[in-house]
Each structure stands twice: as C-alpha cells, then as structure tokens.
Design a protein that fits this description.
CATH class: Alpha Beta
Number of domains: 1
CATH superfamily: Ribonuclease Z/Hydroxyacylglutathione hydrolase-like
CATH topology: Metallo-beta-lactamase, Chain A
Protein name: Persulfide dioxygenase ETHE1, mitochondrial
Helix content: 25-40%
Catalytic activity: S-sulfanylglutathione + O2 + H2O = sulfite + glutathione + 2 H(+)
Distance between the termini: 31 Å
Low-confidence stretches: none
Radius of gyration: 17 Å
Subunit structure: Homodimer. Monomer. Interacts with TST. May interact with RELA.
Number of strands: 14
Family: Belongs to the metallo-beta-lactamase superfamily. Glyoxalase II family.
InterPro entries: Metallo-B-lactamas, Mito_Persulfide_Diox, POD-like_MBL-fold, RibonucZ/Hydroxyglut_hydro
Strand content: 25-35%
Bound molecules: ligand L3IBWBLD
Length: 255
C-alpha cells in the first residue's frame, strides 16, 4: 500500500451487482488499521483478497443497519480475520461484538468515525461520519436522489425525514455522501447536492410522509432469510437452522 501523507486515507468503494450494494474499505495509512462498511456475503472472497493485498489490519466490520435485501458478509469475514469485530447500533437489538450509540466513535489508527443515529428506514440505522476526510456513509437513510423505504422493519417516514434533515443535511455542504445502494449507477453525492436536488427530501415533511406511504414497492426477494441472518451479523453458528440452510443454498446457487 503506498501513501504520501501520514494522515491520509486509503478509500475503496466496492459494488455487489445483485443487490446493488456498496461496500467501503477505509484504511488509516499511518497505522494500516482498517474498517469495512456494509460487506456482502457474496463478495467476501473479493474483499478479503483486497484487504490482504493492501496489507492492513481489519479492526471492524460495520453494518449501517440490519439489511433486508442481502446477507451481510461480516460473519464470513470474521472467519478470515478473527480479530475483527462486528458492529451494529444498539437500537438494532441484534447480536454484534460491538453495539454503538449515537455520538460514540469507532477509531482506527488516527481516524475516527462518528456514529449518528439516523432511524426511519429501520430503528437501528446509523450514519458514520469521517469528519477529517469530509465524508459520511449514510447506509439506506439517504440514497443518491432518494432514500430508504419506510414500509417494514419499524420504518417511519416522519422519523426518516427528521433523521436526514437533522443528522445529514446539518453536515457542511461539501461533505461527500456514500450510500449503501444505488440502482442507477451513481456512486457518490454531497450534502449540498442532496439538499438541493433530492426529489423526496426537498419536500415538506407532510408531502414526504404521503409520498413514502404510497410507494407500493415489492418486498425485497431475500427478506425472509436475510433479516434473521443479519440479526446475528451473518454468523452461521448463531443462525437458526432453517435460515442457515437457506443462506447456504442461495450462496451455492450463485456459484
Ligand atoms: N428489489 C430489491 C429491493 C429494492 C429495495 O427495496 N431497496 C431498498 C433498500 S434495500 S431494503 C430501498 O429502500 N429502496 C428505496 C426505493 O425507493 O426503492 C430486492 O428484491 O432485493
């Protein structure tokens, strides 16, 4: 891994094409300590290879929330990097090594991610803010020109609207925003762009609630096994037998 400045960051945005999920790897170059955000089960092999090639020490695998559309890669990553800790918000009421609260930080080397609670898509959704590099990882709370749906997993349009306005749009204009998904090939946005051009979040709160309550989206195809699997961070040994078998079958089908 090459780097020019002791405080610099190595940053990788990785995509998974079936669920259109983005995974992020962040490395503090001074210490070579790293975190991964929202890894996906199907791409664990690829991500592990990259982590090894970069020669870094993976400290944490952070899930921005309990995903409903894909199985997290954190369980399989833990087998490959046994010292790594899984992280979820305590509000997710799930099993993880570390449970974070609003206002806490996750530290790797000289870098520090601030945890901001951004519920609404789910109760346990958080946004991770890396102030020194002017970046935030918004999970499904804020998507590029969109936002996470609010019709299951304790979703609430009013809560989401307030989360985005109070916790994400309150960041400086030039902060780059990285979502957990994009369905149109876009990769990154900024606070200023979303404050001006997000077709949902520029509406009034009442208009937003009305719009979100009438999206009528089909349920994610994998929700029935992805949610219970993600409630235990994708760790096979902690899954009930039916969930574990379904996860294994779905993985084998894709090989
Ligand atoms: N078709 C996909 C699910 C697509 C979907 O519902 N995406 C979620 C985020 S993952 S739960 C979402 O919030 N979308 C917002 C929107 O406006 O579409 C599947 O079957 O997995």
């Amino acid at each position: 891994m090459t780097h020019s400045h002791p405080n610099s960051l190595v940053f990788r945005q990785l995509s998974e094409g079936v669920s259109n999920t983005y995974t992020y790897i962040l490395v503090c170059t001074a210490s070579k300590e790293a975190v991964i955000i929202d890894p996906v089960l199907e791409t664990v092999e690829r991500d592990s290879k990259l982590i090894n090639e970069l020669g870094v020490k993976l400290l944490y695998a952070l899930n921005t929330h309990v995903h409903a559309d894909h199985v997290t890669g954190t369980g399989e990553l833990k087998k490959r990097f046994p010292l790594m800790k899984t992280v979820l918000a305590s509000k997710a009421n799930a099993k993880s090594d570390v449970q974070v609260e609003h206002g806490e930080t996750i530290n790797f080397g000289r870098k520090s991610l601030e945890v901001r609670a951004t519920p609404g898509h789910t109760n346990g959704c958080v946004t991770y803010v890396l102030h020194e590099d002017r970046m935030a990882f918004t999970g499904d709370a804020l998507l590029i020109r969109g936002c996470g749906r609010t019709d299951f997993q304790e979703g609430s349009a009013q809560t989401l609207y307030r989360s985005v306005h109070q916790q994400i749009f309150s960041l400086p204009d030039d902060y780059s925003l990285y979502p957990a998904h994009d369905y149109k090939g876009l990769t990154c946005t900024s606070v200023e762009e979303e404050r001006n051009f997000n077709p949902r979040l520029t509406k009034t709160e009442d208009e937003f609630i009305d719009l979100m309550n009438n999206l009528n989206l089909p349920y994610p195809k994998r929700i029935d096994y992805a949610m219970p699997a993600n409630m235990v961070c994708g760790i096979y040994d902690l899954m009930d037998e039916k969930t574990r078998k379904t996860v294994e079958q779905s993985l084998n089908k894709q090989k």
